[in-house]
Write a structure and sequence with these properties.
By secondary structure, this protein is α+β, with helices and mostly antiparallel strands. It is built from 5 helices and 8 strands.
Length: about 170
């Protein structure tokens, strides 16, 4: 899959993305907005391990966001199972130097549209930390609807936070 958009290209990760992945992911501000499985500091070894694991997963829907030929972000769609098999969750991050340019809104919109067109999904949801209004705005601009506040839902960097649940349905 490759989606060439106005501001970026969404494509599969490649092993040669390790250096740019580590450079853009190794940022405390990025880490504060994502789950703890995303390491900090983010080393070149972390990048190699992520890329090897992601590339070897046959049906992984984890994609690179590329700008001017450089991997600067990631977006993933994670299908659910059992009675939730028609749903998926989405997560994303973007290198700080690219914040505020509409890149992630464009990427979230395009990946959501792609998933609805190519997979038997009826719902894609995403959770953002309540202290991250920019990420909530990305989802709103991408057509996601706010469904609720999950009180004391995450513990990030020693702080108990609410998370905000958004979803887009087909």
């Amino acid at each position: 899959m490759q989606l060439v958009l106005e501001r970026c290209t969404i494509r599969p990760w490649r092993l040669d993305n390790a250096e740019s992945l580590a450079r853009h992911a190794n940022n405390r501000k990025v880490w504060l907005a994502v789950g703890d499985l995303f390491p900090h500091p983010y080393t070149i070894q972390d990048a190699h391990e992520f890329l090897q694991r992601t590339i070897s997963e046959r049906q992984a829907m984890k994609f690179c966001i590329e700008i001017d030929g450089v991997a600067v972000a990631g977006i993933g769609v994670h299908p659910c199972e059992d009675v939730h098999r028609h749903t998926a969750t989405m997560g994303y991050w973007l290198g700080e130097e690219f914040w505020g340019r509409g890149i992630m809104t464009e990427a979230v919109t395009a990946v959501t549209d792609f998933c609805f067109e190519n997979f038997p999904l009826r719902r894609i949801s995403a959770e953002v930390f309540a202290n991250n209004p920019a990420s909530a705005r990305v989802l709103e601009k991408a057509g996601f609807i706010f469904e609720g506040r999950l009180k004391n839902n995450v513990l990030k960097d020693g702080e108990l936070l609410d998370s905000l649940l958004y979803a887009r349905t087909k």
